[in-house]
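TEACHING EXERCISE
Course module: macromolecular assemblies
Task: Read the component lines below, then compare them to the predicted structure of the full complex.
Student: A.B.
Group: 4
Components provided:
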Amino acid sequence: MTPDAFRRHGHAMVDWVASYMERVEGLPVYPQVAPGAIRALLPHEPPVEGEPWEVIAADLDRVVLPGVVGWQSPDWFAFFPANVSGPSILGELASAGLGQQGMLWATSPACTELEAHVLDWLVGMLGLPEAFRSDGAGGGVLHDSASSAALTALVAARSRAAVSDGELVAYVSTQTHSSVEKDARVAGIPHLRLIDVDATFAMRVDLLEVQVAADRAAGLVPFFVAASVGTTSSLAVDPVRALGELCARERLWLHVDAAMAGVAAICPELRGLNDGVELADSYSTNPHKWLLTNFDCTLFYVRDRQALVDALSIVPEYLRNAASAAGSVIDYRDWQVPLGRRFRALKLWFVIRHYGVAGLQAFIRHGVALAAELVTWVAADARFVLVAPPRLGLVCVRHLDGDEATLRIVEAVNASGRAALTQTRLAGHATIRISIGQTHTERRHVAALWAQILSLA
Amino acid sequence: MTPDAFRRHGHAMVDWVASYMERVEGLPVYPQVAPGAIRALLPHEPPVEGEPWEVIAADLDRVVLPGVVGWQSPDWFAFFPANVSGPSILGELASAGLGQQGMLWATSPACTELEAHVLDWLVGMLGLPEAFRSDGAGGGVLHDSASSAALTALVAARSRAAVSDGELVAYVSTQTHSSVEKDARVAGIPHLRLIDVDATFAMRVDLLEVQVAADRAAGLVPFFVAASVGTTSSLAVDPVRALGELCARERLWLHVDAAMAGVAAICPELRGLNDGVELADSYSTNPHKWLLTNFDCTLFYVRDRQALVDALSIVPEYLRNAASAAGSVIDYRDWQVPLGRRFRALKLWFVIRHYGVAGLQAFIRHGVALAAELVTWVAADARFVLVAPPRLGLVCVRHLDGDEATLRIVEAVNASGRAALTQTRLAGHATIRISIGQTHTERRHVAALWAQILSLA
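Instructor-supplied answer key:
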């Protein structure tokens, strides 16, 4: 494809994406598509000769859209906002065109330095500890997901603990995202304890302390605690300060997973979310969840970047270079599991510059205000009750008639195609999670959802 | 950014990418930029108010390009081709615009089914074993990198071995890519053996057999062998068939890492690369290296997908859904470490359809022919000698005056900005790797490189 053909087809593809943005509100949020229906639209064999671009591009409407889920719909209240924005999409486009491999500073100084710089910006923007800045002993890096960030933290923590694997014990709460359990399995951590939570679904430090003592008495080696700032089910916030003090006393690595909630700290009035984070060894939050940036874009910070390098650096001959040898640069390959890496910082840089800090704050406040208004509507209806303290953009409710009535509402809303919800379980009850924060969600969308829920109730 | 503004800025960004494609040949392949020089162009603080888009986009030229490395230059002979193409970039653009999360079939039937289908296409296109197809017990998935694919294979193999971690032993050759050693460290595999290679840099099965026996005698549990089809330093091919027979006898998981070389099997005359692959439990190769597709795009196949699910599936309440419960769909979250996943299949689908199988074959043959011609030039010069058997697009040479003379050439070429090379070490000798296969590399670029090398010699 020549540059001129790329211009032509690229303009058309930009137009198609713009038209998708315009159409998405009218499309079913969950398409009613049977397993195998999309594959049935595809030929059994690939084409031998190339096809005209117009035919290929037209299949976005014919083949792809029928199986696309409305993650970008303003009626999206499921899982997490996953909010894409124009500047972010254009960052992905530029990144794809430049085709950089940022595994070493030497293989892309632009990718490496822009990433380090933007992540230092975000330390200030989110009110995170100065120790996370790369101009000291710490630093930030972009990962694909909070799963990968927590895996990297686990591996660094194990390396720092420097004991035989067979004895290691990691700790999470019963509300911690399943990815940390998966990470522990991947890393081969033999013991993972699920600590119980209090009435707000936050980890109980007293129980953790007892468990750590019991494990030590049994000859095991506690080494890692993952705290959640915003659990998946209810955005519960673990007591990070108390956990940090315990971890300091017990010499445990404290990782703080603030996947969806952490970015809200861009608003000074919400910085209570960061209480105690200065005691953490590592921290992650996802602009790809609620800061207008395309997946994949997870911020991962450490207080001591040498711990990552000690755990993950292997330098074969073909990766040696003068800049790395001089120790004057960051080589991000040592900060993550894969070797290769995309130029992810471009999209984040574009988003921050296009919206500005004030624009991003306004966006977060908008979602929080919509959720607060929804809470007043829930309180006004005797059939529904809040299952957890509402926080930020998440409202968790259940129908007083019980699990069946509650789950039927989730199923009916999802089957209607008019909005998307996720179910969860809290304190033994089936619960409706209403997650507000999609890029284009307005008051009218939340009102329509609540009206639909009431009509189903 | 409204859809109309996105159209306007998107067209301009497409034009910028097209202009980069046109300009890249004239830009220094390795820019001469000092550590910190890119950061010095960036303001210390992020903007409070949003900036005009034109100002942001202009900084691609002012701030980013001075630190961009010419991975997309036709004069790129370093590392691997990393070849981007127009259709692939447009696939990234569409994927970013749709903002899908393909963790479950239910969260994006389009992402899941297109991926499964295109990976089945590639089984046929590359002449891989039918057992890797998803309509049987196996299946393919897109990962970000061969590192992540090998990590997943290690974890599935450990799960299948079902023994205490403390006893496990994995095997690679001394030429295996460092990522497998890193993966073993991440997975907490206590013992990794580096088996010596023969004169072609291929793993010696006889030595592996002896080592496995010795490890069993010592009470350890051999469980995993990673074979390379195309090592990084010289594209050496391990004896996969003999390794597979040994692994079958010894009940070891055989993973075949064909990162750069494997895609060449799209040409029937190069399918010797697949000899014995039907004996492998898992296999990976990277269209993002040499099949015109943007990073990240690694094909990862398994013969028994249940082994992945057994190793990696954890199902919390918020991920439950009817389609998954019915067992009628693929949920790719269980085929990888992270939970979230992008719609990567779009770019690969676009590439296959735009070029057709015949077009992709022609592209590979073009690179192989250029390398073959370069080999004749090397043979004609008494100062240089081939260090390894030339294979596919890779030619490994050294200067007969020794390491210093050889390394000086690599440094001088890279410092010149006219081309990019990578050094490696083979059989004790510093070696120049000349990797041919960038999207736009023609005979004149290889000829210019060789002329430059001769003038430096």
